[in-house]
């Protein structure tokens, strides 16, 4: 088997309203990659959020009264905390510098995935707004975004494709952030290997592989976290058939979550 990951070159700084299908298509042409059946594109959540206009200036946010205490405990700007609460179902843990939440999309992450890094003001932003107070929310519905992008690329290429939206998350039992899938279309989220046989004929009983997260982590190595400017990765050689997967398959039910 061979799995090949290739960054797409010269992706511009994405602005609200940009056509990501057109941007990705041009980058594929520049990389001389012709899409084939089974190919997958992994995209950093930031470019999806920016294209969808998920930028917010903190001056536009009025924190509620309950937010103040949480802001004090976390040592965060109350306006940012207000946004975190709006994007979350539940606050799970708080310490200086971090608020761990169950995001409204169902996964657990720090600060509801809201980010300051690599966030610039939109071109039409009023000049009096501080450039340091722009923040970026995660896409409203990453799987729906992935489906729209997949449809556009499939129409242009004629190939059956998968699209994966990637965000960086920490983990309860490890140091360091890792690329995670937060939305997908056209590929499985998990592969259930229960009932498969190992090398010695033993029947697997509990093995469920989070293949979408494994792909997201691999792509994240190439995307980077700083000034790499490589937010799109072409993947060829995924060792499982493409299908209509569900992101919710990756979410552990609360009754099975030993960290809650």
Description:
The strands form four sheets. This protein has a five-stranded mixed sheet with strand order 1-12-2-8-9. Helix 1 packs across helix 5 and helix 3 crosses helix 4. It is built from six helices and twelve strands. It has helices at 20-30, 45-51, 65-74, 78-86, 142-157, 211-223; strands at residues 4-7, 40-44, 55-57, 88-95, 98-103, 108-110, 134-136, 162-171, 174-185, 191-192, 208-209, 232-236. The protein has two domains: 4-54 and 140-250, 60s Ribosomal Protein L30, Chain: A; 56-136, CofE-like fold (Alpha-Beta Complex), CATH 3.90.1660.10. By secondary structure, it is α+β, with helices and mostly antiparallel strands. The two termini are 39 Å apart.
Radius of gyration computed on alpha carbons: 19 Å
Named CATH architecture of the largest domain: 2-Layer Sandwich
What average pLDDT do the residues reach?
A: 93
The fraction of residues assigned to DSSP E strands is 15-25%
Distance between the termini: 39 Å
CATH superfamily of the largest domain: CofE-like
Total separate domains: 2
Low-confidence sequence ranges: none
Which key phrases capture this entry?
260 residues; alpha+beta; 60s Ribosomal Protein L30, Chain: A; CofE-like fold; 12 strands; 24% strand; globular
Q: How do the helices and strands line up, and which of them pair or pack?
A:
Layout: E1 4-7, H1 20-30, E2 40-44, H2 45-51, E3 55-57, H3 65-74, H4 78-86, E4 88-95, E5 98-103, E6 108-110, E7 134-136, H5 142-157, E8 162-171, E9 174-185, E10 191-192, E11 208-209, H6 211-223, E12 232-236
Parallel strand pairs: 2-8
Antiparallel strand pairs: 1-12, 2-12, 3-7, 4-5, 5-6, 8-9, 10-11
